[in-house]
Amino acid sequence: MSSGQERDRPQHAIGESPDRPQTELVATLAMMVVILLVIGALYLIQTTTTTTTARVLQEMSDYRDELENDNERLRADIAQLQSLPTMQARAAELGFRPARPGEIEYLVVEDYRYHRPKATLTPVVPVQEQDEEPVYDDSLSGWFERLWDDLRQDFSDWRDNRQ
Question: What pTM does this model have?
Answer without folding.
Answer: 0.40
